[in-house]
Structures are given as C-alpha cells and as structure tokens.
Amino acid sequence: THFGFKQVDKAEKASMVAGVFHSVAAKYDIMNDLMSMGVHRIWKRFTIDCSGVRAGHKVLDLAGGTGDLAAKFSKLVGENGQVVLADINNAMLQVGREKLRNKGIVGNLEYVQANAEMLPFPDNHFDVITIAFGLRNVTDKDKALASMYRVLKPGGRLLVLEFSKPQNEMLTKAYDLYSFHLLPKMGQLVANDSESYQYLAESIRMHPDQETLKGMMETAGFEQTSFHNLTGGIVALHRGFKF
Ligand code: SAM
C-alpha cells in the first residue's frame, strides 16, 4: 500500500485510529476547513437537509467528534428533543463539548464516549442516526451497522456521510494527487503531523465504494437504501430506514 502502511490487525487498527484522533483533536476543525476548502460544510448541510429531524426527535450523532452536526440538530429538535453526541475518543469529545458550550448550545445535548460497534443505548431508541466521516475509522463496520440498526426506532433513518469513490477518471487523478501528496504536507505544516493525514488518505482509499456500502447497510437490515454522490462522488451520503 502507499506509504508502507502494512496490513494491520483489528487491535492495531483501533489503537492507530485512537492515536490519530487524539493527536488531531485540537486542530481538527481548522484542518477540516483547510483540507476540504470549506466544502465539508456544504456536505454537512446537505446531510441535515436529508435528515428529516424535527422538534421532539431523539438524534444520535455517532462518531460526532467536534459536534458540527450535533450543534445543528440540537436547534432542530428543540427543548423536548434529545441529541446524543457519541464518539470513541475522549479528546475529540472534549474539544466538541468546549466548542458547543461556548456557542451556548446546552440543555438537550449529551456527550457519550462509546464505540460504534457496541452502542450503550436501548433498542428502538433514536429517530435519526447520523455518522459523518466516522464509519471508515470503525474496525468492524458490519458490527457497527448492526448496532446502529438495533438502537434505531422502527420508522427511523440512518444517514452515513463518508468519503466514497469519485465517479470519473480525471477527478480520481486530481484527487489522488491532492490527498496523497498535498494533504500530508498540509498536515505537517499546520498540525505538525503528516502521519495522521497519511492515515486519512489511506483510510479513504480502503473504504467501501457506494454500492458496497449500500449492500452492507442492507445486510445489517436497513431498507429502502439509497445514496447520493456529492462533489463527483468524492463523498456520498447513504440513507437507509428501519421498518
Ligand atoms: N463527525 C465529525 C465530523 O464530521 O466532523 C467527526 C469525524 S472524524 C473524521 C471521525 C471520528 O470518528 C473521530 O472523532 C473518531 O474518534 C471517531 N471514531 C473512530 N472510531 C470510532 C468508533 N469505533 N466508534 C465511535 N467513534 C469512532
């Protein structure tokens, strides 16, 4: 593989992911804006528009990190609703909590340290679950999707926002150049950490493409699954329902 990443076993992957997010937490938001040239905001806006979240809903923002989606959901669900921002990484959760509190977003928002593979919530609990740029970091994705299915209410929906497969060759080439060459350099310059950003590029390449992820969601039990490509398929939003 690129950059000499060897095949790693499950425990190794989990601790590598923990290390990556621990070291990027403080610079995460600024790096997001830089690396995506601000476009991640548009991808997240689209996700919120597709979420169907309304007043009174219970929403789980899984792998929620620094809380961009959770902050928006907190406003949409209102005081009778509930938003849970769950992430496996305490450093990311702390940065998120600090940021949202400073914005005055409190009250209907809870922070839970949890692994997507073993969600500590009751069955049939949430109206909507989102996982944005999180699934690719999860070691056992099938297990995580099954866990999401379990805690989703019948009638509820899952939205997976994730890097995917660019849909044309020119774009693929430009994107490879960008993510394998420019991105680690930016990581080095801004966050003094090129390795984490090499991991990022690598994990994006290994992630299942649009059709594969759709199939995985169906295997976990989701119905009426579909996806929508964003920015030429660099990112895709997958949706599925539990009935
Ligand atoms: N959702 C946020 C966003 O879109 O800005 C954060 C995305 S960040 C790229 C990925 C997040 O996934 C990190 O905060 C990381 O700690 C979290 N994560 C990785 N593996 C996880 C797991 N198994 N369970 C829950 N969260 C996980």
Quickly describe the structure.
47% of the residues lie in helices and 21% in strands. It is of the alpha/beta class and 243 residues long.
Textual characterization of the structure:
- By secondary structure, the chain is α/β, with parallel strands linked by helices.
- The chain has a single domain (about 1-240), classed as Vaccinia Virus protein VP39 (Rossmann fold), CATH 3.40.50.
- The protein contains 9 helices and 7 strands; from the N terminus they run αααβαβαββαβαααββ.
- The chain has helices spanning about 10-25, 30-35, 40-50, 70-75, 90-100, 140-150, 170-190, 195-205, 210-220; strands spanning about 60, 80-85, 110-115, 125-130, 150-165, 225-230, 235-240.
- Helix 5 links the parallel strand 2 and strand 3.
- The site of S-adenosylmethionine has 19 residues, from helix 1.
- Strand proportion, as a percent range, falls in 15-25%
Shape: globular
- Can you say what the CATH homologous superfamily is? Vaccinia Virus protein VP39
Structural class: alpha/beta
- CA-CA gap between termini: 40 Å
Spell out which ligands are present: S-adenosylmethionine
| Level-1 CATH class name | Alpha Beta
Question: What is the C-alpha radius of gyration, as a whole number of Å?
Answer: 17 Å
Strand order of the largest sheet: 3-2-1-4-5-7-6
Number of separate strands:
7
Seen as an oligomer or otherwise, the chain set is: single chain
